[in-house]
Amino acid sequence: MTDRLAFFVGSTTPFNVRLDVQHYVWMLRERFDIDLVATDFSGFSSAVLADVAQHGATHASNRPGEYRAVREYLDAHDPAALVHVTRSALPPSVVAGAAKSNGVPVVYRYGSDELYTYRVASGWRKAGYFFRNNVLGRAMLRLSDVQMVFGPTAKRRLTSRGCEPDNVVELPPPFDPGRLTMDGDSSAHTVAPRDRDLVLFVGRRIRYKGFDYLVERIPELIESRPSLHFAFVGGGDRDPELPPPADDHVTVVGEVEPEFMGAYFDAADLLVHPTLTEAFGRVIVEAQLAGTRTLARDVGDVAVATENTFETDQEFVDSVVSFEDLSLEDGTRFDRAKLKPEYVSFFERLTAR
């Protein structure tokens, strides 16, 4: 066994997870040899791929293909650990089982607050989420040797379900402050009249992300502070339906390419993140890196990302109306350069077991 780490990313890796993996590679490449096991590498930058060995690209991007990719890799290599970083097409427990059968330790990155997702679901989805995440998902907790979480809330979730406290390690997600450019999209500064204060919502326009929650409160917020203007950035087929005069205080931007988001964060006076479920909240830190105040619902480990949180409706309304009183936080505390020693130390301890 060598100081070689394998990251399993499968075929359905979301943009945010790809970013995290690229940051992991950047932080660990000088200390470890790194393998990426995936069926599709098109979403990764050429700079990252130059620092890793690629495995699995000849297989199809589906469950059988992912299984063949990880099985083929493990039969030919003996990494010090296999890190599962995303919800792939292949169930995480299958990936972990394959690694364990080859004597390879498994690190499970608990990257979403999926154990509590059922609590904000409705109808048949509530039972479906509970069965998938809280029944079937228990297998991954049993099979993994170490669990990576973003903060204390997730650690409590996992330890209450049988994970050993010493094996649940808090590691906040890393960021590259230089990735976002503030002048990438000049139209970002025209989404609201110059005499208004821009409140930004970033995410899909669905109930889970707090879209309905925010829309329902816009009339009250406008009445309390007429200078507010709300911009919705993100996908979705629903638009805010509001009566006058609130309807004149809303702009639906739609989807924006990630590389242009910096300009929208820079243009905003406040980012609101009223999501009903969240593990951490990447957009919170990205807004902070642009020098923008943030306000988020206190769910998951959002409180690790920002101290400006709310629990009640009145707290939300009061905080938005008086947003200048919120703390202006420094997102560079999550700079990957600052977190690098912590990550290297974690994996050194893991490989020394």
UniProtKB/TrEMBL annotation:
Q: Does the keyword Transferase apply?
A: yes
* GO MF entry, a single one: glycosyltransferase activity
Q: What is this protein called?
A: Glycosyl transferases group 1
CDD domains recorded for this chain? GT4_PimA-like (cd03801)
Q: Which InterPro entries match?
A: Glycosyltransferase_grp1
Q: Which Pfam families does the entry mention? A: Glyco_trans_1_4
**Cited SUPFAM superfamilies:** UDP-Glycosyltransferase/glycogen phosphorylase
Q: Does the keyword Endoplasmic reticulum apply?
A: no
Task: Could you list this entry's UniProt keywords, alphabetically sorted.
Answer: Transferase
Would you say which domain of life the source belongs to? Archaea
